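Section: Multi-chain targets

For targets with more than one molecule, the full set of components is provided together so that the structure can be written out for the assembly as a whole rather than chain by chain. Components appear in the order listed by the source. The example entry contains two components.
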Amino acid sequence: MVSAVFHSPLGSTTEKNQAQPIPKAEPGKQPAPAKAPRQPIDWRGVWLKVLPPVIGIALVVGIWALLTMKSTSFPTPAATFTEAVKVFSDPFYSKGPNDQGIGWNILFSLERVAVGFGLAALVGIPMGFMIGRFTFLNNMVSPLISLLRPVSPLAWLPIGLLVFKAANPAAIWTIFICSIWPMIINTAVGVQRVPSDYLNVARVLNLSEWKVITKILFPAVLPYMLTGVRLSVGTAWLVIVAAEMLTGGVGIGFWVWDEWNNLNVTHILIAIFVIGIVGLLLEWALISIAKRFTYDEV
Amino acid sequence: MKSFIEVQNAEMVFNTKKGQFHALREINLKVEKGEFVTLIGHSGCGKSTLLNLIAGLTLPSSGALICDNREIAAPGPERAVVFQNHSLLPWLTCFENVHLAVERVFGNSDTKARLKERTLAALELVNMSHAAYKRPHEISGGMKQRVGIARALAMEPKVLLMDEPFGALDALTRAHLQDELLKIVGRTHSTVVMVTHDVDEAVLLSDRIVMMTNGPAATIGEILSVELARPRNRVDLAEDTRYVHYRKEVLDFLYTRHGHVEKAAA
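Its structure, encoded as tokens over all components, is:
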């Protein structure tokens, strides 16, 4: 059950190493002006970093512009941009339940994700610890997890609607059930992979169970756990859009569906960008947290 | 004199996927208080297994192990282990690594200030005070091993068990740490059981060298008493005829009489 969604902490260390050269160069530069003239900026390096992504985006926008030049139904990039400026100039208006600013829509979606994901973390992480620690439990739960994990998120929605008899809890339930698996699995794998040397240290020192958990298990498992959390947040954000399309209420997914009913394709395009950017920010925030807690293997 | 550690007829059989593996047979060994004993043998002869038995990390299939008149049933801080790969916790500083052990052993009897004092004293003992607040990945292999020794010594154990503690180090660092270990043991009069595969290390450090036959079903082949006066100096000993003689005896045992047998013969 283990390897499917597993990122090793070694992997994240290399990520870290790749990301570091830029901040590392700065402390080198700071003392330099005092003694020697400033180091010339490495323009070539900057260009090679900035240019490829810019070209990529320009290419997509260019093709989009070319394809929509003569179209009447599909908006051009320019039209989308002007509309986006308009939408974002007043993100927090509220004209009744079906017409609210994009800011509100994003915040409501994020709130659902936070609640669903938070509950999943509360249940999933301790469960992962237990499964990792006790083989019996692992053997008991493994087949269930393997069976339930590949189920499409939206298949859970009717169950939520049935049980909670309301749209909002049903959406949260869907997020909960979909984002719990990566956290359980990665935490369990982390516990199973705690180096036996560390546990031997604990045995020789005869540490109390509490000390073993706080000083050895938890720090050793943390990088694995954060990988699980990262994957879970990604899943949760994917699921919320789909769930809100079906359940309605205020939220970015509902907004997409509403604008489709209004045939406002420009807004749908804006929503797609917004969903992408928010997902990116969530991922980025969690990676930076994970980096802070990744220790260097010795 | 009553022996401090006693291994009586210990047998060790592991249940592996390929069936049973008889690792150790009929091990009988007595270690006196304050004695420095090394276990030497070819790799795979079960010397680490024997050390783990004394540590209590594994329990024998049959036979008994006694330390200070008590049967060894589980690991405990009175038998501190220095692991082969130091096993420092990478998320704790050197100070915290040692403090974890000190706190466990003396936490109930000592004040917080005294615990801190003990930790710093242990680090001082291995000349690692300068790196007390560094994390293991920031210091060299030799330094890590020294902190590992500090952690073991800080517990004031009755026995210090060392599993090839200098095996992963370069020759110069190893020699340096051996000298430091000799000094520390000279001061603390600790009882030490150490696993090694280095003949010079065994002769230089030990009071007795326990030479083990090849596995499977390895046992103690011969025990050599090293009667060299302490403190010992490696440079002077290099030309000492008795040292050369002891060294030859061990080499003779390891390579002439119990040369590493091929698997086909076993």
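The two ends of chain A are 28 Å apart (CA to CA).
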